[in-house]
Specification:
By secondary structure, the protein is an alpha/beta fold. It has a single domain, classed as P-loop containing nucleotide triphosphate hydrolases (Rossmann fold, 3-Layer(aba) Sandwich). The chain is 34% helix and 29% strand. The chain contains 7 helices and 10 strands. Helix 3 runs parallel beside helix 5. The two termini are 20 Å apart. The model has no long low-confidence stretch (mean pLDDT 94).
Amino acid sequence: MLSLKNISKYHKAGSLKTTILNNINLDVDAGEFVSIMGPSGSGKSSLLNIIGMLDEPSEGYQYFLNEPVHQLKEKQRSALYKKNIGFVFQAYHLIDELNVYENIETPLLYQDVKAAERKALVADMLDRFQIVGKKDLFPSQLSGGQQQLVGIARALIVTPKLLLADEPTGNLNSKQGDEIMELFSKLNKEGMTIIQVTHSEKNAAYGSRIINLLDGTIESSKNI
């Protein structure tokens, strides 16, 4: 499904070069559930952003669904991302001006889903995450945990081929967190490919492979 070849990411300021990712090689097959772990500053979120085409590497080659991402124009990359990838952000990234219902609905608008179908899909998500009573509220009126649930609902509404999750349970209580990981596990068994960044060994164990990053390089990769 996805292949990264010699991917590096660095920032230059004058003669100073700060390396974030260094020569990453990674292949992920369709149907895998990969957990990426590592200390803060090891490059986990940067790697996830590159996989999700939200950021570009400084060097290297990237393929997704046999498309050479490194050769695509921004518009082509955006279309590939919107059609196939769902992203759960650590910092929610909800749209402040839209209410809960509208935030969850947004990805469907990019895909030209008809109004009646959009309504049914959003209703299903509101019900699944038990946030029906919050549908008219705006992000600023929600707790961190509620915002995270909205973010997860928004990522899943298009049934993406690939789900990327950056600390998906970081703002949830333990019961909510367990429920979300069980949901991810169920979706993975149904065929969805998932890559999550997590500090939690318990959450990482839901995956089929754990990759450990250290100082921008892959220190280890093991199947579980």
